[in-house]
Amino acid sequence: MRRKPKSASGSLLELVFIVAVALGLALGIQAFIVKPYRIPSGSMEPTLAVGERVLVNRIGNNFSDPKVGDILVFHPPKGADVNECGIPGQGPFYDGPQSRIPCSRSTSTASDQNFIKRVVGEPGDRIAIRDGHVVRNGRVQEDSFIKDCGQGADCNLGTITIPKDQYFMMGDNRGESDDSRYWGPIKRDWVIGGAFASYWPPKRIGPL
Fold this sequence. Notes:
Blueprint: H1 8-32, E1 34-38, E2 53-57, E3 71-74, E4 115-121, E5 126-130, E6 133-136, E7 139-140, E8 157-161, E9 166-170, H2 180-183, E10 186-187, E11 191-200, E12 206-207
Antiparallel strand pairs: 1-2, 2-11, 3-4, 3-11, 4-9, 5-6, 5-8, 6-7, 9-10, 11-12
């Protein structure tokens, strides 16, 4: 028995349905599984260049906590909008050069911005900065991937303790990064996901 040919309106309806399903799947993948992210600044150089595009694992964020070394996309605290610490007067500009410390507590709510930085401190860690290198629980961390901090005053900061369920974030370009030194650790709930691969430009394709 020969099939009855589809009408033009039937074919159009089928095409619209296929496009709608494909669009829905793409949006669902971005919303819940993998999201692309464009690097907006040089704060993560040399690891990530301005304009580079990375993939962010959103679903993994629901099953495991961040670890030191992870590169995360996250909402910073609202204090990041104006480099404000959650403790008035505290942060790298705190009370003169002899007592400068990183910001130990962020403002209470998240910003709408998306940042990308590296985890350098987990809950309960004691963190200090020496010549741009992280001193974690008394030990200078291996960080051959960073860009030299230079002579900036914020390259040497005293010790703070990271609060429960919070993470201290820094850019790999230690002398040119707006990070937790200024506005404090981020809350676990503010993490969007972990960046796991670069997909553009072609010469930068690969895992992170």
